[in-house]
Every structure is written in C-alpha cells, then in structure tokens.
Amino acid sequence: MSKGFDDLLAKVREVGKKKLAIGNAQDSFVMEAAKQAHDRGIVDVVMTGDADKISAIAKDIGMDLSEYEVIDVKEPMEAALAAVKLVHDGKADIYMKGLLDTKSFLKSILDKEVGLRTGKPLSHVAVFEIEGIEQLLFLTDVAFVPYPTLEDKVSLINNAVNVAHACGIENPKVAPVAAVEVVNEKMPATVEAAELTKMNEDGEITGCIVDGPLSVDLAIFPEAAKHKGATDRKIVGDADVILFPDIHAGNIAYKFLVHTTKFKNGCILAGTSAPAILTSRSDSTETKVNSIALAAVVAAAKK
To answer: With a threshold of 0.85, does the pTM exceed it?
Structure first.
C-alpha cells in the first residue's frame, strides 16, 4: 500500500516504464517535468508541437532530444489531437497537457475519433502526502466538477476509488465531508453524504467504505474522533478519499494545503480510458513529476 510518493515511485519501478505523450509540448515547465520523469526512469516521452520551439526550449533546459521523440505539428489543436491519438491507439500510455488551454485539452480528450472518452463522467483527483497525516489523501473534486449532483458524486467516488486501488489501497475509506458530521435537512451536503453512505451499504457503490457526513477533523485526525466521542464511526481519522460537496470547498482546501503545509502532491484526470494529466502552469515541477508517476501507476493498473 502506498503511503507516500516514494512508495508510488517504487511502484513505478515495479510496473515498468510507461510512454508519455505531450500535446503541444512547447512549454518549458512541462518539458522540464518530462525530462526529470524520463531521467528517473518513469516514462519515455513523445512530444507533439512546433519542433523548432521544442528544440529551443530543450537547449535551454539541457534536454537531449536524441532521447525523445518529437512530432512536428505547428497548429496547437492538431498537435493535441496527434498526441491523444497516440494514447487512443495504444502507442502511448499517458496523455499530458502542454501549451494548451484547458478547453482545448478537454476537447481533444472528448474527440469522438481519437479521444479517451468512456461515456463516464470525468473528474479531477488530487493526491496528497502531508506531513503529520499517515496515509495518502485522495481529494475530489477540486478543479473540474463545479456543483456535483448526487449522481455525479457517485462517479466522483468511483473515479477516486479506482485511482486509490491503482496505488495499492484495496478498500479505501471515503469521507463525504461537510461542515458537520450529522444529517441536517437544511444542509443538503449532509443529506447527500448520508445517501451515499446508504448506497455503499446497499452495494450500489463498491470497492470502498463510505461514511458520511463527516467533518474534516473526524475524517483525517484520529484524536478528533476520540474527543468528539465518535469512535464508533466507520472512519475515525483514517479516511483515504475526501469527497468535497462542491468545487468551492475542494479548491479552497487544495490551495490552503499547498500554501500552508509541508506536502507532496500529484493530480490526474480520471474517468478517461487512459490517464490524462491536467496540471496548472503554477504547479511546481515536483508536482508535475509526481503527477506523471501517479499516471504511470494508474496506466499499469488499467492494463
């Protein structure tokens, strides 16, 4: 079971090197991350995009392009489609956004001919290793689904659980969090959390343990369960997956963790037929490399 990114990197070595396809790759931050992931033996890399610009960036960052495949495609959307097609056709394992806006990246993923659509909803899963918390935390959704319905939340759980399974967590504990840990009819997030828990108990959501509503402290701090007399809950500070009620709560929590804790993290777009990496330009190189490692583990599990 992976408890940190060092464990994930070790797992990558077990499953073997994967192939990463970067759409419209001429982004120095993404190329630096790809270089580091390649140097660590995580992936081989193929880059689509403007070959002249890719070559110039490679020179600046000390990337030896003889060790990489470059496909010269000048137009950004065509470059994105060329990269995602490699994954669609099984010639690469992971698809990553280069110098593309998010709309174009998602358009390429959902392309009917060469994309990675499965017919299932897509969602964002952020994986955190945080000092002081024993287990990895899988956060969803902090970046993609704005106001998930109850049906959406089932998909969010399934997607996050699949990622957790790939990381070696056989029966992840899922905490649908809210402001309080009891059902309050005036607080819809608590009502839906209880419904998700019942669906899990009835076998409609499988492969995990769901317990909600839970406040965040009960979800991730064992001492809180003791102080609040909640040690009879299925989750007593040992949640693996945190399901947020909406994108506001998720995004605020994500950025609060990034700016106030000692952490490592990686992010992946789930619900696709192969792993897709949607990182922000503001994400650190380490986060991008961790995202590639996470995607490599998920790619191995899919196969």
So the answer is: yes
